[in-house]
Write a structure and sequence with these properties.
By secondary structure, this protein is an alpha/beta fold. The chain has helices at residues 63-70, 78-88, 95-115, 129-142, 155-165, 171-189, 205-210; strands spanning 2-3, 8-11, 24-26, 29-33, 44-47, 52-56, 75-76, 120-124, 146-151, 197-203, 213-216. The strands form 2 sheets. It has a 7-stranded mixed beta sheet, with helices on both faces. A hairpin with a 2-residue loop joins strand 3 (24-26) and strand 4 (29-33). It is globular, with a radius of gyration of 17 Å. This is AAA family ATPase. Residues 1-24 are annotated as: Disordered.
Length: 220
Amino acid sequence: MRIEHTGAFATSSGIPAQRARARTRRRGRLLRDLRERGGRGPRALVFAAGDLVVVSGLPGSGKSTLMKRAADGHGIDSQDTRERWQARMPRLLPYAVYRPVVRLAHYAGLRRALRSGASVIVHDCGTQSWVRGWLAREARRRGRALHLLLLDVTPDTARAGQDARGRGVSAYAFARHRRAVGRLLRAAESGSLPPGCASVTLLDRASADVLRRISFRDPA
């Protein structure tokens, strides 16, 4: 299935969704809803060379797991930066003490990746709209497109994901994430894509689990 306006391809099973979902195009932008397919969605998403992709959703929704499995060497995940710094720090030192340094290191690494001109898949917590704005500006500068992959899971599923990885967020922080991700979901479902995004793909846990590859075509 070719997505002409976004330069993206989806390799799918060809089985229709359980409820009708027409792809929505508005002024050359596209919404693809892959939820409620019972795990029978696309196995791969392929975008144009030089495009940028943001993976967003609640903490514990499976963003890092999806990126580790499917990003094909293009991923920039703040969790990877955190783990590198944790390996250097005394075990009893609380993460909150060096969190600002980790964030600076993450954004510095993202800046280097963007300046290289490479295609990049970026982990996004949903609350940092300025990061999506930054990526949208970079995509425009390149003459390429920015795409959002948005994981839609219930709060209980997200909390279970946090428990499984042994790291949770405070109730206050989780509420902020819920509001931010909720706004993104409501906007996408109404056909209003976030500023600067050429496409939004909505995923539930089942469709995320079967997605094996997010990659980019080789330059012509």
